[in-house]
Design brief:
Helices cover 60% and strands 0% of the residues. The protein has 6 helices and no strands.
Length: 162
């Protein structure tokens, strides 16, 4: 049984729109928004959000597919009327606080904020303790005088060599 395409124009239109061919239904990652103020907000958010597959790049700087998808999400949500905080909240709920290039200071992010400093302080303390211990050991070895028995044995050894 053959169905003519002309007989089901609604199905063809629905398929065409579902595949993303419809104008204005889906945002491409770098397609600017019609309103300049909205586009400025989107670009500012792109600079604040981290690409989850790149090393410390914002989604504005990344060419990764995930960064492109995130840019499109930001533009779609701004075009839908959401505030910047709502967009950040949506992406944070999806990817966690790590998606923010400047994550908030809270117990869950203490490791991000204070971890590097703690590792540096611990390393410096260990280095200081090892240096102090080696200097104290060297001073003890130099300062300890020979006992009478040690002196006698040393003199005997020196006399035997000559």
């Amino acid at each position: 049984m053959r169905v003519a395409l002309r007989a089901v124009p609604g199905v063809v239109l629905a398929l065409w729109l579902a595949l993303g061919a419809g104008p204005g239904l889906a945002f491409s990652p770098d397609e600017p928004l019609g309103d300049a103020a909205l586009e400025d907000r989107a670009r500012a958010l792109h600079e604040e959000l981290r690409c989850m597959v790149c090393q410390g790049q914002s989604i504005a700087d990344s060419d990764a597919a995930l960064a492109q998808d995130m840019r499109a999400i930001v533009r779609e949500r701004i075009a839908a009327g959401e505030s910047d905080a709502d967009v950040r909240g949506f992406l944070t709920a999806r990817y966690g606080d790590y998606v923010l290039l400047d994550p908030p200071v809270k117990p869950e992010t203490y490791a991000l904020w204070f971890g590097p400093a703690a590792v540096f302080v611990a390393g410096a303390a260990i280095a200081f303790a090892l240096l102090r211990r080696s200097r104290a050991g060297a001073r003890r070895a130099e300062a300890a005088p020979l006992s009478a028995e040690e002196r006698r044995r040393l003199d005997a050894l020196l006399d035997d060599d000559t």
